[in-house]
Structures are given as C-alpha cells and as structure tokens.
Amino acid sequence: MRGNSSNRFVRRALYLGSVWLLCACSVPQPAAPLAEYSVEASPQGLILSTSDSLLAARFKWAVHQALSYVHDGDDPVGKWYEAALPNREAFCMRDVSHQSVGAHYLGLSEHTKNMLIKFADNIEISRDWCSYWEINRYDKPAPVDYANDDEFWYNLPANFDVLNACWKQYNLTADRDYLEDASFVNFYQRSMTDYVKTWDLGVNELMQRDRFMNLRSPLDSTNSFHYSRGLPSYGEGDPLQLYLGGDLICMEFQAFTSFGNILKVQGRDSETATIFEQARQIGEFFNDVWWDSTENQYHSALLTNGEFVSKPNRYLLLSGICQTLQQHRSALARLLDQKNLNIESQSYLPHIFYREDEEKRAYQEIMDLSDPLKERKEYPEVSFALVEAVMEGMLGISSDAVTRTIFTLPRLTEQTAWVSVQNVPMFEGSINLSHQDNNQSTMENLTDSPITWVARLPAGVESLAVDGMSRTSRVGVMPSGKEITQVEYILNPGEKVTISIP
To answer: Per CATH, which fold does 405-500 belong to?
Structure first.
C-alpha cells in the first residue's frame, strides 16, 4: 500500500524540492513580490509568485497533488509516478506521454526517463512490435491489460505518442540519452519501420488495412484482449465498430516529424529527407481524405461500415497537421464548442487553448479542472497537465535543445497582473522568468552556458526595449493568426535581462 500521503510528500520533497507560492494584493516589481502567504519545502524547488491569489491556490493544489503520485525508487520498477487510473499503481503509455511535460517542471525528469525507457525496452517482435501498454510498480505488465503476448490491450497511437514525448524531453533537458541510448534508438527505429509495416499504417495501407489483424486465433468479440489488441485510436467507446481513428493518423504524422528531427540531430542526413517525406505524405493524405469541405470540418473516425464520424479532435492542433488557416480555425472552433468531456480529455484543453491564444478560455479551464468540487480531478493526468498549462501556456515557455534556444510569450488575462517563476528546470540548469501585463518579460540564465532567448510579446511594434535600450524586432504571426513581436538576445550564464514594449 502507498501509506500516508502527507508523510510521503515530505519524504519526496527532500529529494525533489517543491513550490513556494506567493500572492500579493498590489502589483509590486516581480523581483520582490509582497507575500500574503507562502508554501515552502525546499529552496531548490520551483517557485511561483503572482498577483493572482486564485491562480496561486490552484497551482499549489496541482503541484501537491502531482507530487503525491511520485515514487522515488523503492519499487522494482525504479523511479516512477502514477500515470493511469488512480490506485492502479501503474503507468500507461498515453498518460506518461501527456504528463511528462508537467513532470519536467516539477523536477521529475529522471522519473520520466526511467518510465519511457521501460516502454522502449519492452518493444518486441513477439507482440508485433508493441510494448507493454501499462507497467506496474513491480516492473511487470499490468494484469488488467495483459495476459500474454497473444492477448493484451494496446492502443496503436501509443508508440507514436511515446516517441513524440521523447523528442520533447530532449528539448527540455538536452539529455543526449534521448538521441543515443540504445533502448531509445531501437524503439524509434522499430516503431517507424517494423511497427508501421506490421500494422499496415503506411499511407498507402491505412484505408485498406484489416481492422482485426495480427490475431493468433479467430476473433472473440467477447474478449477485449482480442478486439483491442491493436485498437487504431485512443477512442475506446465502441471498439468493435471502429475501423480507424483520426487521432492515430495525426500522431503518426507528428511522430514522423519528430523522428526526422531526431535523425537530423544524430547526423543521419541520408535518412532524414526520406522520413520528412513520409510525414509530408501522411499530412497530405489526411488533409485530402479526412477533410470534409462541405461541412468545413475534419472527420474524427472511420467506422467498420464505411461511414465517417466527425467529432472534435484535440490531436489536430497538437500535431500541427492542419494545412490551411481555415482548417486550423475549424479544428479550434469545434474544441471551443465541446462540452461534457471526460476528465482525461478535458485535461488537454488548457494547454491547447493557451497555444491557440485563447487565454481567457484556457484560464477558465484551469479553474474548472482544479475546482474543489470537480469530480475525478484527482486523476493523475489533471494535476500534471495544469502545471504544463501554466508553464508552457500562460508563460509561453518552449525550448530547442539543439540551438539552446528558449522561447517565451506571456498570455496573461485580466485576473493576473503579473506572474513569476524561479528555479525552472531547463537544459542542464534552470532559469528564472517573469511576465508583467503582457508587455514586459524578464529572464535570468542559471545554466552553465549561454542561452538564446527569443522573447515574444503580443504586439505588432517594430522595436522592443532590451534593458531600456531600443532594439529592432521582428513582427510575426502565430498559427492562431495573432500578431506578435519578438527579439533575440544571447543571455550569458548569470545574466538577467528585461525585454519590454517601449
């Protein structure tokens, strides 16, 4: 059993660090906020300060909830955090892929790496190049999803989702194991070649493939380990009627793009062009066949009777597969109109809406998901996703480990005059970052090497001020159509700079 959660939190905090949450009624300088209250565990952990007391309280809940699911290596599986249904004491491929970004900002990159390696290590030809969908604390496939190599539950987007998560982790941590470790390299190669071939996921096979394939015995429609051994979607509503999910194609497109980037960094130039071409072909196929020009929307699934179903699909925007602004806006509009989602699906929305510059709706989703009365908010995915939404959505942090570049873009609403974060894990060290009124950002480089900071601000001006000195900037447009201005600055170790709209 897991034991008392409060005691476990204190024990973990000594290793992980935690969060100081500071709140001020007035709007002081971000460097020295007036604290109404604080929560402290370790001065080395993530610190969030803000003028928004409700944001501070909800972020505090998310951090403590997420850390309550962390296990620091006392189990046979090693370091891990729960990423499955609560109390199952396991982690599954989809949930880990989604929770991994929030986990990074909580100092859990070693845990994430261990879990991703477990998935990579267990890809096997005896399972038709599937891994274990869900692994428990005993370092075994979770019995609820696995009987033997012939009978088990497996959602086919999983390999692609894990590969995308690995590429994201490399860009956050600059850990070259994600490029060079034999387990990862084998997983990438097998997933993008043998796995695609074995399950007929190539662009020329997707619409003709056998829905119930690679079975070792005749299909038993009463046995979920038969009809879901190779479920072609994350959607599980009526698996016997599902032929193909649009989410699978979106994630395959994204995985080929990520794999191409991995090969490029590895210096395997002769293979890179071929992989990027496969990504292009999948994207072109999807936009030609799965776009309904009459209804101005994408199909989300194809049924075994040959009919398309059209429901909102979050992976359209997450994968970047939309080719035109019209298609992009259609996919976003349908997500904005979606209601009564299950908690797992809803947990993706705050980050997506921030990325789409729908910051007011994104803020509302954070508040709804963390509402004390929200049912099932204890699902592990929720708290990790909220940390991701604040860090990469509200603060607009993204990174490129190859060029050591950090991008930022404030997306504050009227409820939040300013927000500041300290000890943010990035590359081999950390950064401090603050935004004020969407017109000023300050970053401090606490890593050992220079960082290229691309500071973005939501305005269409021709110059920004760098520590008060005017510098020519570049005006651009985000995928949402929102105009921004950005400036690049080489931030040396220990240097702190403020960039603002004059």
So the answer is: Immunoglobulin-like (2.60.40)
